[in-house]
Design goal:
Elements lengths: L2 E6 L8 E5 L1 H6 L5 E6 L3 E11 L9 E2 L2 E2 L8 H13 L4 H8 L9 E6 L12 H12 L2 E3 H8 L5 H9 L3 E6 L7 E8 L6 H10 L4 H17 L3 E2 H8 L3 H9 L3 E8 L18 H15 L4 E5 L5 H14 L3 E5 L3 H15 L3 E4 L5 H12 L7 E4 L11 E7 L17 H12 L2 E6 L4 H8 L4 E5 L10 E6 H6 L9 H12 L3 E5 L8 E4 L16 E3 L4 E3 L6 E3 L12 E4 L3 H11 L5 E4 L9 H10 L5 E4 L12 E6 L3 H4 L6 H13 L10 E6 L5 H8 L2 H15 L6 E9 L2 H19 L3 E5 L5 E2 L2 E10 L5 H16 L8 E6 L3
Parallel strand pairs: 2-5, 13-18, 13-19, 14-16, 14-17, 15-16, 17-18, 20-30, 21-28, 21-29, 27-28, 29-30
Antiparallel strand pairs: 1-2, 1-4, 3-4, 3-6, 7-8, 7-9, 10-11, 10-12, 22-26, 23-24, 24-25, 31-34, 31-35, 32-34, 33-34
Helix pairs in contact: 2-3, 2-15, 8-9, 11-12, 13-20, 22-23, 25-26
């Protein structure tokens, strides 16, 4: 009987592929293991085994696998179930989910090796110059890689050269799979067994009288062993004995010392103190905690609506403690890596080394180690904190999922596929594991609150700040009026300027929020009105003064700031609008003695970028922190008494049905950073339209008013949460072909769904990286089956793909578009 396996390949394929295996392999292989398989003409991929069976494929002949890569499964059965749900719900292939879910070190792809064909004689005179360079290099080196040939020839496209050499039979190609993950091995040293007794040791020290450095190493080793009782690292011995590694190496060569290696995790939590006791909950937190437990008994996802600084984290900690007591794992999801920085230290205070962290700033090697620790349910990975990618960890005993700041748009992945929403996917994950799930926010999303009102979610609330601290005073400043009366100092109103001055005199800290990085979004010639544009995208270039550069924030194209206008040649360039860099510069002029920091994508690029800025601000090394929306999300600074919002209008006037909800959430969240201790904080919101309804609701903390208003509008216009939405984006470099293709596809959609199809329309930025974009929105009314709708769309896509003229047009699905 022949044996086969179905595998998931890490490429966007709709179906699983079948490969043949021997009887012995079939007995050994389990679902969730990785195998290297040939795919296409010569490529080898690491694929994931889905099932072992005895049914041969009908359309093609099954190839044999290349090799088995794992001893035990690296992916669990529950994970596979979750991945298939994501693939089906978000209309993407299972291969795309697999590629996103696992650390890239698990996705081994073969590398092409170039070897010289030794079976034929070659006339060197017949070779062209570039062919001869490759041939000569292979005479000195038996194997070359593609990037090495690229550097030898000093050109990027080396394919034509390799093709010519292949045609002439001069080279042969070979595919090789190599492992990317290498465990970290730490070098330790100990005394050889020959010198354990006192007599032998005395003999040894006498024999080393002419080698004082070696004698010092031996003595230091004994002192370290006596004081620590732990294995001694070579690096520690070098430091203690003030010697070099060469001295230690010579002692190892003489068999006086023995060296050995121990595999160690790259990320280690060092806890010098005892774990702190959990803080006791106040009456409001205790009531919320009991409400949450009641809802958990009913197996309902629960929404915790707690105002900013109400102590939601303490409630989470109490729930995590309960989860750990029942010998289960806990997952804590956060929208931003910046938040994990502050939260890790708080959780490690309570739970010590049980906390593991997983997000994209970690290296591939570190992520593999965290993955393996969770998979084997080690004590050091009982609580996993991370951004949305932590959702894909291989939990064995998941008991609790917490999604903090659940309203955040950062939980939605936009590119590449799967375009999933981590909050919704977390609810399904909890259901698969039969775990409890809690969504927390000071400004819940309209969707989540709608689910509470419909009885789908449970509800708990904390509507008083911890320690009965008062909510901050929010003041709206009309900058149109201030500009007219010439009372503005740069982009600062007189009111905001005076408040900053007073706050600094009181030795307190200030946060300033401007949701745009760079110095200015537009550079314009005042003579002819020309503004430098990105050649690849339909946007103007943003000026970054620190680097004296104009940058595109979509494709990272950049040029040096021109000295004169490219269109008319006159040196009359001026900036329009302002970003965080300009606010920082104005502050340095207005408050020369203040220490100012900036937190945006430009200043947090490094692995520890967030940590350095947040720690400096926490320890009051900075007086004023200017930042974009990464400042707004749940950070806890005790000494901040003033928050300034530079311009609220950029948020309110965005072309999106969620603009007002998002503005309310963002402004309320950033206001919540002020006055988190006994003194009442102040928030100053600058706007050209201070009478806007949303700004009034923010200033009075009227969440219910905002919710009812938004829900009414969405019911009128058939938007979520009342209707579901699927956004379809068409992408192509040819403008005419894109228009034609989008019209054809939309016509098919209209035949199926009638008036519920909007578009096709160009988005505000209609070209990115030289690809034109066009969007279609499908509104799915209440009662219409979502799976049937998706099947109808897929049928139209099949007919669309059958037209060769449209084959190159990309169709991108975004389910529950936000």
């Amino acid at each position: 009987m022949l044996n086969f396996i179905n595998v998931i390949l890490p490429i966007p394929l709709e179906k699983l592929f079948t490969y043949s295996v021997s009887a012995a392999e079939a007995e050994f292989i389990q679902p969730g293991m990785r195998v290297a398989v040939p795919f296409g003409k010569s490529k080898i991929y690491s694929a994931l085994v889905h099932e072992v069976h005895q049914v041969p494929p009908t359309v093609y002949e099954a190839k044999e696998i290349h090799q088995i890569l794992d001893e035990t499964p690296v992916v669990t059965e529950a994970q596979l179930k979750h991945w298939f749900w994501i693939s089906e719900y978000y209309m993407c292939s299972i291969g795309e989910v697999f590629r996103t879910a696992v650390p890239s070190a698990f996705l081994l792809e073969s590398e092409t090796l170039i070897l010289k064909n030794t079976k034929i004689n070659i006339d060197e005179l017949e070779l062209l110059d570039d062919e001869f360079l490759v041939y000569e290099a292979l005479s000195h080196q038996s194997i070359l890689r593609v990037h090495e040939i690229s550097s030898i020839l000093d050109k990027k496209n080396i394919l034509p050269v390799l093709n010519r050499l292949l045609d002439k039979n001069i080279i042969i190609l070979k595919e090789e799979v190599y492992e990317q993950y290498k465990p970290k091995m730490v070098r330790y040293v100990r005394m050889s067994k020959l010198f354990q007794s006192e007599e032998k040791l005395e003999e040894l020290l006498n024999s080393l009288t002419r080698a004082p450095k070696q004698s010092q190493v031996v003595l230091s080793l004994f002192q370290l062993q006596a004081s620590t009782k732990k294995p001694i690292k070579v690096s520690d011995l070098e430091e203690a004995s003030s010697s070099s590694s060469a001295t230690i190496k010579s002692l190892v060569n003489k068999n006086i010392l023995e060296e050995y290696f121990v595999q160690t995790d790259r990320v280690i939590y060092l806890n010098d103190t005892e774990n702190s006791d959990l803080k006791s909950l106040n009456e409001y937190q205790q009531k919320a905690f009991l409400d949450i437990q009641e809802n958990f008994k009913l197996k309902k996802p629960t929404l915790l609506h707690g105002v900013t600084s109400s102590g939601k984290t303490e409630v989470y900690v109490k729930l995590i403690e309960q989860c750990l007591k029942s010998k289960k794992q806990a997952l804590y999801l956060l929208p931003e890596i910046a938040l994990t920085t502050q939260l890790i230290s708080r959780l490690q205070e309570y739970f010590g080394e049980k906390v593991a962290v997983y997000h994209s700033k970690y290296s591939v090697q570190e992520r593999v180690e965290v993955w393996n620790n969770v998979l084997t349910n080690k004590s050091k990975a009982q609580i996993v904190i991370g951004a949305r990618s932590a959702l894909f960890m291989p939990f064995k005993e998941l008991g609790l999922v917490i999604v903090d700041e659940e309203h955040e748009g950062s939980f939605k992945q936009y590119d590449p596929a799967p375009r999933y929403h981590a909050r919704d996917a977390a609810i399904v994950l909890a259901h698969i594991h039969n775990a409890n799930i809690l969504l927390g926010s000071a400004t819940p999303s309209v969707e989540s609150f709608y689910n509470v009102e419909n009885g789908k979610y449970g509800y708990a609330s904390i509507l008083k700040r911890f320690g009965n601290v008062l909510m901050p005073d929010i003041e709206l400043v009309d900058i149109k009026e201030q500009t007219r009366k010439k009372r503005m100092k740069g982009h600062f109103s007189e009111r905001l300027f005076l408040e900053i001055e007073e706050t600094l005199q009181n030795k307190e800290q200030v946060i300033l929020f401007q949701n745009r990085r760079g110095f200015a979004p537009i550079v314009e010639c005042t003579t002819c009105g020309h503004s430098p544009q990105c050649p690849n995208c339909d946007v103007s270039l943003t000026y970054h003064q620190y680097q004296k550069q104009l940058r595109c924030h979509y494709c990272s194209y950049n040029i040096a700031l021109p000295l004169a206008c490219d269109a008319c040649g006159v040196a009359t360039l001026d900036t329009k609008g302002f970003g965080t860099e300009q606010v920082e510069q104005e502050l340095q002029t207005l408050f020369p003695d203040a220490k100012i920091g900036r937190m945006d994508l430009d200043t947090t690029r490094g692995k520890h970028g967030y940590e350095k800025i947040i720690t400096a601000f926490e320890q009051q090394e900075l007086d004023i922190l200017v930042g974009t929306q990464m400042l707004t999300k749940g950070l806890d600074f005790r000494n901040v008494s003033l928050v300034g919002i530079m311009n609220a209008d950029t948020l309110l006037n965005f072309p999106d049905f969620r603009a007002h909800e998002r503005s309310y959430q963002l402004l309320t969240q950033v206001a919540g950073r002020a006055g988190r201790t006994q003194k009442t904080g102040k928030v100053i919101i600058q706007s050209y339209n201070p009478y806007h309804q949303i700004l009034k609701q923010v200033s009075t903390g009227d969440y219910m008013g905002m919710y009812k208003e938004q829900l009414y509008e969405r019911q009128q216009h058939k938007y979520p949460p009342v209707n579901r939405i699927i956004k379809i984006t068409f992408k192509h470099k040819d403008y005419s072909k894109l228009n034609e293709a989008a019209e054809w596809f939309t016509k098919g959609l209209r035949n199926s769904f009638g008036v519920h199809v909007l578009g096709p329309e160009f988005p505000p930025v209609a070209r990115i990286r030289n690809q034109y974009l066009k969007n279609v929105l499908i509104k799915i009314p209440v009662g219409q089956s979502l799976p049937k709708t998706k099947n109808s769309i897929k049928r139209i896509e099949k007919s669309f793909n059958a037209i060769s003229h449209y084959a190159s047009v990309r169709v991108i699905y975004n389910v529950d578009y936000i």
